[in-house]
Amino acid sequence: MNKKSRSTILRYVILVVVGIIMIYPVVWLFFASFKSNDELFGSASLLPKAFTWDSYIQGWKGSGQYGYSTFFLNTIKLVIPTVLFTVISSAVVAYGFARFKFPFKKILFALMISTLMLPNAVVIIPKYMLFRDLGWIDSYNPFIVPAIFAGYPFFIFMLVQFFRGVPRELDEAATIDGCNSFTIFLRIMLPLSKPALFSAGIFQFMWTWNDFFNSLVYINSVNKLTLPLALRVSLDASASVNWNQIMAMALVSILPCILIFFFAQKHFVEGIATTGMKG
């Protein structure tokens, strides 16, 4: 065995070990959801003595008037419009910054980038007061409306960098063929930027789906709670917590994110690796 083969094997061994360490909490969560409460705290074994689905059945019913079917629908109502509007509005604004010249362009772009440096804790109070005065508290508008108006500068910056990597000769050729700026955006820029758009959508989906703090601030009614808030409410439902049910619902809650990551991971790679057209 030569030196190159030993080095390759060593890298794979390290990757496997690190992968096992990272995925172990999810594996433990999966098996813990099939244990009883007593076994959960009374045994250190990974595998349960007897698999039971009762934690999923009872956990899905919830601990009050509303079950997890309501919380899942609430999360979907919040996440899907937010993701769609974020991708569309960010692409439009990024196209403007990448391809057009207009007064104060550099200043506006610098201001947009500067908002990335502001921690959420700094702006949460002004945002809350603004949304309160608009009557948007206890609704999903604080998430959806900013997405409509490109209120997520990270994705704008990411798409600007991608659009700048697309050769301008394509725009010039399309202009000669009679295309206007809107047609160029629809027929050239958007098809070429699919990896970046997918990456932006996947990131926003995961961040919004798992968002606890902002949902806690803006949503008050139980019938409008999202999954992260519902899991927290389940812990406050009674003095004795059915942890196996919490584990089961936590696993169900993160399942969409896990599936999207594995089925769309190639778009993560393409969105990061691709900087425009090659060749």
From TrEMBL:
InterPro entries: MetI-like (IPR000515), MetI-like_sf (IPR035906). GO terms for cellular component: plasma membrane. The chain crosses the membrane at residues 12-31, 78-98, 107-131, 143-163, 184-207, 246-264. It is found in: Cell membrane. Keywords: Cell membrane, Membrane, Transmembrane, Transmembrane helix, Transport. The keyword Repeat does not apply. It is a multi-pass membrane protein. It comes from the Bacteria. The keyword Membrane applies. Its main location: membrane. GO terms for biological process: transmembrane transport. PANTHER family: ABC TRANSPORTER PERMEASE PROTEIN MG189-RELATED-RELATED, ABC TRANSPORTER PERMEASE PROTEIN YESQ-RELATED. Belongs to the binding-protein-dependent transport system permease family. This is ABC transporter permease subunit. It comes from Clostridium chromiireducens. The gene is araQ_14.
